[in-house]
Here is the input.
Amino acid sequence: MNLLLEVDTASGQPPWRQVHDQLRALITSSMLAVGTRLPTVRQLARDLGVSAGTVARAYRELETAGLLRTAGRRGTVVAEITEEYVPAELTALAREFAEAAQRIGVDRATAVSAVTAAWRVGAD
Here is the structure.
């Protein structure tokens, strides 16, 4: 299986994160179907020219997020996403925003309105 993943050693982003983010995008966009078997850690590491630890970390993080599962002899497969997937980074940013809004005395409705207004500006 050729996943068309790339690792850019000059990007400044850790290789495991690049692999993680590319796989996450393929899974959440349904370009990788539920049950799709991924290459072994060693095989993907060879294909990408990175260490097995790099791929193992990406797989582990995606498994923790519920996007992959280890299926015994079948290897690592794309998991069924039973809830709306929210990236951990977005959850962390939302938590920081909510805490900041509470610190300055803003209620929930006002905070949500601010996000909605900002989204409209950035979306167009």
User: Anything to note?
Assistant: Residues 88-103 form the longest helix (16 residues).
